[in-house]
Amino acid sequence: MADKNQIFQDRFIGPVKNIGMITLIVAIICLFIPGLYLYFFHGLIPPFWSMVSAIVAVWSFMAIMGVVEPIVYYPILGFGGTYMSFLVGNVLNLRVPVSAAAQQVVGTKEGTPEAEIVSTLSIAGSIIGGQLVMILGVLLLLPFIDTISAGGSAMKVALDQVLWALFGALGGVFLFRVPKLGIVPLGLGLIIAFIKPDLPPSIVIPPMVILSIIAARIMYKKKWVKGEGMM
Asked: What is residue 217's DSSP assignment?
């Protein structure tokens, strides 16, 4: 087992870490290129205080989410999956469900080398497939974009429910395995739905995930649920 883990660290974790860090650094640098281009070649720059207020508004939210989200989603995404997911985006509504569903289908145990590899491959596949579908979708839907985005249209209403339907279906898979684990997330979800139903998923889901993990841990310690039934 020690040799297997060492091989996994040397041939998978090490290269993933190096490639992931380099890729993210390059991506961060590239984010500044459009602004620098507009400044140096066209002399365009926003007013100082407008820029400061925008930075403060974004960082007041992202500084917290940048710490919380990787911690919350890492157990599902794994090492390689975390690098890729936070590089390309759509972490909550696509990468997490893809990784969880793939591990569920294959039957790997969370935190194992097998789960890491399955998660990485599934997320890589979702990125490639997602880009192809997005390009095709844009080309096909471009003539109908005004109709789709029109307020009150049936298509817009349906698209607004995709994320909730996706997580509902994914949650159902796990809750059928261990129904007791659904007490806390379902209870919190109902409370939030009655008190503040218009909160965005990016604010609602991370704290619910943390509280659900804590509750699952307590249930496991008290032997209310068995470890075999959990991911």
From this structure: H
Q: How far apart are CA 143 and CA 231, in angstroms?
A: 44
Helix axes 14-42, 48-88, angle to 10 degrees: 150
Q: How confident is the model at residue 225 (pLDDT cuts 50, 70, 90)?
A: confident
Hey, where are the domains in the chain? Answer: 69-160, 163-231
Query: Residue 83 is encoded by which pair of tokens?
Result: 């690098």
3-state secondary structure of 198: coil
Structural contact between residues 94 and 126, judged by C-beta atoms closer than 8 angstroms: yes
- DSSP label at 47? -
Q: Rounded to an integer, what distance in angstroms lies between the CA atom of residue 171 and that of residue 165?
A: 10
Smallest Cα–Cα separation from 201: which of 21, 24, 73? 73
The 10 Å CB-count burial string (b at 16+, else e) for 157-188 is: eeeeeebeebbeebbeebbeebeebbebbeeb
Please give the Cα distance from 229 to 215 (Å, whole number): 15
Highest mean pLDDT among 26-30, 64-68, 75-79, 110-114: 26-30
Q: Cβ distance 218 to 184 under 8 Å?
A: no
